[in-house]
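Closing statement on the flavin mononucleotide sub-project.
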Amino acid sequence: MIDTKVFKNVMARIPTAVAVITSRSDSGFHGVTVSSFGSLSLDPPLAYVSILKEINSHDRLLNADGFVINVLAREHTFFAEQFSGQTPLADPDFGGVPHKIGQMGLPLIDGCVSWIECRHWEQHAAGDHTLFIGEIVNIQAGESDDPLVYFDREFLELSW
Ligand SMILES: Cc1cc2nc3c(=O)[nH]c(=O)nc-3n(C[C@H](O)[C@H](O)[C@H](O)COP(=O)(O)O)c2cc1C
């Protein structure tokens, strides 16, 4: 039997990048902070994000056409907090979030390390999460080489 507390503590000690997943539903643009995302396949080009079934973002993502993985830079700590519900959420037109609109009509947050625009490909139930697999329709690197890192429940920077 796996102890929940030990599970969480061990997983928290895997250093990860941080992204905001942007999508759109009837109520406007939406963003959610994640660390469980990544590359899945080159041919076809696929990426994934794992979302807890019980959070609001889950059904919004299910009802969207696709999503963007905005890989955050260190200067984006505020947005990482904002889109994880720790501070008030951005308005549905993303007025307070500097961005441009990408190929899928979804927000690309300014200053990111990279942007991965995905159309929904498949979804798989994975315990209390759903694995959202996206077919990559556009992918680009940003100018920042200063990614935001999450380790032991803290936002950190890479030290070169
Ligand atoms: C650094 C960080 C990483 C997170 N990674 C994930 C993740 O990979 N999947 C997930 O479902 N939630 C993740 N969360 C939690 C969600 O951001 C949070 O539950 C969500 O914003 C709740 O809001 P909602 O109910 O409006 O969707 C993460 C939070 C933080 C701060």
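The pocket of flavin mononucleotide is lined by residues 18, 32-36, 50-52, 55-57, 80, 83-85, 150 (CB under 6 Å). With this model delivered, the sub-project is considered complete and its resources will be redirected to Aim 3.
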